Structures are given as C-alpha cells and as structure tokens.
C-alpha cells in the first residue's frame, strides 16, 4: 500500500546523507520527543509528595461508578452496548491518532476537517486537553524514566499507571516541560480552541452525549446509559491508555533497544488500539504506525490509512526495513530472532 509510505525515513536519509537516523525528527519541525540522554537524575533529597485530594476523590468515584456499571451490562440493550463500543473507539482514536501520533509526534499531517474531528473525539476521552497531553508526552519521551518524566516508570507500576495523576508533578517535569518547543501546538487553531473550551467540550462529549443518545433515541434506561457508555467506557479508555505507561514500560521484549525500559506488549496494543509496541515507539517515535508491523493489532494505523485514502491525511512517516534491522542488530535484545 504505497499511500502509507509517502516519505520513508530511508528516503529522507537518501535526500540528506548527513542526517542520522535518530535526527529524523527534524523533518517534522520538532525534535522534542527524542530521548535526551544528557539529563541525569538530581541528587536526593526527593521533594515531598503532595497528594491532590480532588483527583483522588474523583478517580475513586469514577472507578466505583465504572465497577457498578459492570452490573448494568446484562440489562443493557444490544444497541446500547454497540454505542458504548463506538464511544470507546472514538475516544481512543482521539488519544491515539490525535493527541499521540498527530499532535505529540507529528508523525503524519492532517487536514482541518480531520483535526476538528480528532479534537472533538479527544474531548470524549477527557485526558487533559491536547496541548497539555502533548506537552506531557513529549517530556515523557525526551526524559523517559527520569524525574522529568511525568509518569516515570522507575517509580513503580501504580505511579506510572494512575499515581502520577494523584500527586503534584515533580518539579523537574514542570521545569523541563517549560523548555520544550511547543510552537507547533500554539500555532494550531484547533488545539488552542479545544484548550480554551475544554470544560464545556468534556461535559458535552465525555458525559452528556454518551448518556443522552441511548436514553433519547432508543429509550434506554437513564441508569444504564449513564453507567455503561459513559462511566464504564470512560474508565476503560483511561486504563487502556495508562497501561501503555505502566505495563508497556515493564513487561515485554526489547527487540529494538535493550538500553531503554519500554517494551513490546501485544496485549496492551490490543487494548490501546495499537499503542503497545512501545520499545519500537520509543526507538522511532516519528513512525506514524507506532509499530514495525503496520496494521497488526493496530486499529489506529488502519484509521490513519483510511484517512489517507480519503485525502484527509498525508505525509505518514515510516521507518525503512533496513533501518529497523540495523537498529535491531545494534541495540536490540535479540528477541526478534525467535519471534
Ligand atoms: Zn512510553
Ligand atoms: Zn509517544
């Protein structure tokens, strides 16, 4: 499928022989998602942990509500379960194809209608606005597994999964985050419009729409509509996303770079519609597929491919097989040979 590889890394390298593989981010007018190994941990003492009780209470309520929602599933109409699935997919795409692959990594280009769509469904996922999500994510890549990484996985599974949202950020995250080049995000009117209207947009997209549609259009009970497509779906998308930060930084092979923590985790890839190939992704963050394997367990890649076919997306960055193989031989753990 030629439309998927409109400009491969090898093409760029051929055109610019002086460009090294790991500098390829320059082609996207941003490089702040490339690992910066010059930063090292500051010495102790560690700053005190300040719990954000508002977030603790809200997250407890959400997860209790989502668990309660499981018991409403048998009573739900099939069309409501289908709607909940649609809401799950849309909100997940808002994060994976939107906040992540488009806005954090600039791994492809999207026309205005697609950017508007992705911003709208991103609000359905309610994971902070695109600007903040992309800033946190770039600093996660640039200073991965250090104090400047917002969900530093060396602090354990719980911290990297949800704990990081329940306490104040480490000062290094704020300090390093301020130094990132976010000019591309500031220049994107869609991103800034969503940021200005974020509260209203999450109220409508994450809570009102998922609940009211089944209740109004096919007479679903209000409780089922609120607990299943709204709360349960929201909690599932959150946890699927968080597993990329926790499980995919701990469990799995490192075929591309054994010197970094992120791992290849197919189970996470299934839950997070394509985002579990995390050793690959941290090695080549500019690849629009976030994986060596294109469409395998990767609905997000299928979605971006479809958008390319429709003319709404273009310029998908892909890494050549030769570059991948060279990297595997140079820094991989050898696991690709057995699988
Ligand atoms: Zn990561
Ligand atoms: Zn990323």
TrEMBL record:
The chain crosses the membrane at residues 51-73, 79-99, 200-218, 224-244. Its cofactor is Fe(2+). Residues 82-285 form the Fatty acid desaturase domain. The keyword Flavoprotein does not apply. It catalyses: octadecanoyl-CoA + 2 Fe(II)-[cytochrome b5] + O2 + 2 H(+) = (9Z)-octadecenoyl-CoA + 2 Fe(III)-[cytochrome b5] + 2 H2O. It holds the Pfam family FA_desaturase. It is a multi-pass membrane protein. Its EC number is 1.14.19.1. Keywords: Endoplasmic reticulum, Fatty acid biosynthesis, Fatty acid metabolism, Iron, Lipid biosynthesis, Lipid metabolism, Membrane, Metal-binding, Oxidoreductase, Transmembrane, Transmembrane helix. InterPro entries: Acyl-CoA_DS, FA_desaturase_dom, FADS-1_CS. GO terms for cellular component: endoplasmic reticulum membrane. GO terms for biological process: monounsaturated fatty acid biosynthetic process; response to fatty acid; unsaturated fatty acid biosynthetic process. GO terms for molecular function: iron ion binding; palmitoyl-CoA 9-desaturase activity; stearoyl-CoA 9-desaturase activity. It is found in: Endoplasmic reticulum membrane. The histidine box domains are involved in binding the catalytic metal ions. Belongs to the fatty acid desaturase type 1 family. PANTHER family: ACYL-COA DESATURASE, STEAROYL-COA DESATURASE. This is stearoyl-CoA 9-desaturase.
């Amino acid at each position: 499928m030629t439309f998927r590889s409109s400009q491969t890394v090898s093409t760029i390298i051929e055109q610019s022989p002086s460009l090294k593989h790991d500098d390829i981010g320059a082609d996207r007018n941003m490089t702040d998602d490339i690992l910066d190994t010059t930063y090292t941990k500051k010495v102790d003492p560690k700053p005190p942990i300040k719990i954000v009780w508002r977030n603790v209470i809200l997250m407890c309520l959400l997860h209790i509500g989502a668990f309660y929602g499981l018991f409403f599933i048998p009573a739900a109409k099939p069309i409501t379960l289908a709607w909940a699935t649609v809401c799950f997919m849309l909100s997940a795409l808002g994060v994976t194809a939107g906040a992540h692959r488009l806005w954090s990594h600039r791994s492809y280009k999207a026309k205005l209608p697609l950017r508007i769509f992705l911003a709208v469904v991103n609000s359905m996922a309610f994971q902070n606005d695109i600007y903040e999500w992309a800033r946190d994510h770039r600093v996660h890549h640039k200073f991965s597994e250090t104090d400047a990484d917002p969900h530093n996985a060396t602090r354990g599974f719980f911290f990297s999964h949800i704990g990081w949202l329940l306490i104040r950020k480490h000062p290094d995250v704020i300090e390093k985050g301020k130094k990132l080049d976010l000019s591309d995000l500031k220049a994107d009117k869609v991103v800034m419009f969503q940021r200005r209207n974020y509260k209203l947009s999450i109220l409508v997209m994450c809570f009102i729409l998922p609940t009211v549609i089944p209740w109004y259009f096919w007479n679903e009970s209000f409780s089922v509509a609120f607990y299943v497509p709204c709360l349960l779906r929201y909690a599932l998308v959150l946890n699927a996303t968080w597993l990329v930060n926790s499980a995919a930084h701990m469990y799995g092979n490192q075929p591309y770079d054994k010197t970094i923590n992120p791992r290849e985790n197919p189970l996470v890839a299934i839950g997070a519609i394509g985002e579990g190939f995390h050793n690959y992704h941290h090695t080549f963050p500019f690849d629009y597929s976030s994986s060596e394997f294109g469409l395998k367990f990767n609905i997000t890649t299928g979605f971006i491919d479809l958008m390319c076919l429709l003319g709404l997306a273009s310029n998908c960055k892909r890494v050549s097989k030769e570059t991948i193989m060279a990297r595997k031989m140079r820094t991989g753990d050898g696991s690709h040979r057995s699988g």
